[in-house]
Amino acid sequence: MSSGDIDALLRVTSPDYIGTSHPEIAFGTLDGPVGRLTLAVTARGVVACSYEDENVVFERISKEVGTFIGPDARRLDPVRRELDAYFSARLRAFTTPVDLRLTTQFARTVLQMMLSVPYGTVTTYREIAERIGRPRALRAVGNALASNPVCVIVPCHRVVESDAVLGGYAGGAAAKERLLRIESTGARRRPSAGA
């Protein structure tokens, strides 16, 4: 194990470890009403908000983005605050930018389209495929949504199979139902400033 690997491991496993500078990629977790989310933030934005295990996300980030990874409250806390506000139906739109470099170009197109689906509404795989100009690419759209590395913030939970069928979700059916219920409640409230 190289000294860089050891430093990266210490940053993640030892909350008191400071090192010599702020990490390139801020890394941490948030326990919320839909389970534990693994978070990673780069200079570009949130690169991961994932239901996957921390070790899996850490490994992927270190292979595809960079190895200078560790806790950095000044970059993670604003994301955590926005997620907490969203989960309590006080926030309708995230202001934190996203970094979609962990996706393919096609998936990036699909996920960027998801950012335009309004809070409190749903769309279908077919509608997304049509909106990106690929009406027959239903399976590819589904795969792009299933591999979304920035769940909740990029709202893939707003895609359903039909009015009667929710369809799959990375966090599971219960998490998808909970997120849609949060948005349903929030949509009935008067939006707060900045929401």
UniProtKB/TrEMBL annotation:
One of its GO terms (biological process) is methylation. Residues 105-184 form the Methylated-DNA-[protein]-cysteine S-methyltransferase DNA binding domain. PROSITE patterns: MGMT. Its EC number is 2.1.1.63. It comes from Streptosporangium becharense. The keyword Magnesium does not apply. One of its GO terms (molecular function) is methylated-DNA-[protein]-cysteine S-methyltransferase activity. It is an enzyme of class 2 (transferase). Pfam families: DNA_binding_1, Methyltransf_1N. Keywords: DNA damage, DNA repair, Methyltransferase, Transferase. This is methylated-DNA--[protein]-cysteine S-methyltransferase. It catalyses: a 6-O-methyl-2'-deoxyguanosine in DNA + L-cysteinyl-[protein] = S-methyl-L-cysteinyl-[protein] + a 2'-deoxyguanosine in DNA; a 4-O-methyl-thymidine in DNA + L-cysteinyl-[protein] = a thymidine in DNA + S-methyl-L-cysteinyl-[protein]. InterPro entries: MethylDNA_cys_MeTrfase_AS, MethylDNA_cys_MeTrfase_DNA-bd, MethylDNA_cys_MeTrfase_DNAb, MethylG_MeTrfase_N, MGMT_N_sf, WH-like_DNA-bd_sf. Belongs to the MGMT family. The lineage of its organism: Bacteria, Bacillati, Actinomycetota, Actinomycetes, Streptosporangiales. It comes from the Bacteria. Residues 27-100 form the Methylguanine DNA methyltransferase ribonuclease-like domain.
